[in-house]
């Protein structure tokens, strides 16, 4: 057997945190409905993911709400702001400018 352990790994190295995009599995099936909706959408749209963005967004929001992934702004995950929706800060800035 090698000095690195039974499976060739070096037991003395510190564990490395997962890269962005890697998060815990949903063992308790807390977001199964959202996941199934998204997968059904992909199947019915011929796997054209842009047609299923709303389902993808709902799935990611569920994962964040259930602490299955770190909270992040949806814009950082590739989702733009909804057209016609402004944050209260943007509205306040407009009223100050006028």
UniProtKB/TrEMBL annotation:
<dbReference type="InterPro" id="IPR009069">
    <property type="entry name" value="Cys_alpha_HP_mot_SF"/>
</dbReference>
<feature type="domain" description="CHCH">
    <location>
        <begin position="31"/>
        <end position="65"/>
    </location>
</feature>
<dbReference type="InterPro" id="IPR010625">
    <property type="entry name" value="CHCH"/>
</dbReference>
<dbReference type="Pfam" id="PF06747">
    <property type="entry name" value="CHCH"/>
</dbReference>
<feature type="compositionally biased region" description="Basic and acidic residues">
    <location>
        <begin position="78"/>
        <end position="98"/>
    </location>
</feature>
<feature type="compositionally biased region" description="Gly residues">
    <location>
        <begin position="1"/>
        <end position="11"/>
    </location>
</feature>
<keyword id="KW-1015">Disulfide bond</keyword>
<feature type="region of interest" description="Disordered">
    <location>
        <begin position="75"/>
        <end position="98"/>
    </location>
</feature>
<feature type="region of interest" description="Disordered">
    <location>
        <begin position="1"/>
        <end position="21"/>
    </location>
</feature>
<protein>
    <recommendedName>
        <fullName>CHCH domain-containing protein</fullName>
    </recommendedName>
</protein>
């Amino acid at each position: 057997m090698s000095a690195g352990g039974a499976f060739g790994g070096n037991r003395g190295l510190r564990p490395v945190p997962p890269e962005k995009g890697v998060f815990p599995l949903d063992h308790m099936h807390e977001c199964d409905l959202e996941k199934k909706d998204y997968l059904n959408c992909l199947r019915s749209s011929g796997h054209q993911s842009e047609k299923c963005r709303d389902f993808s967004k709902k799935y990611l929001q569920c994962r964040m709400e259930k602490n299955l992934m770190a909270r992040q702004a949806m814009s950082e995950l590739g989702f733009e702001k909804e057209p016609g929706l402004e944050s209260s800060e943007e509205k306040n800035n407009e009223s100050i400018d006028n």
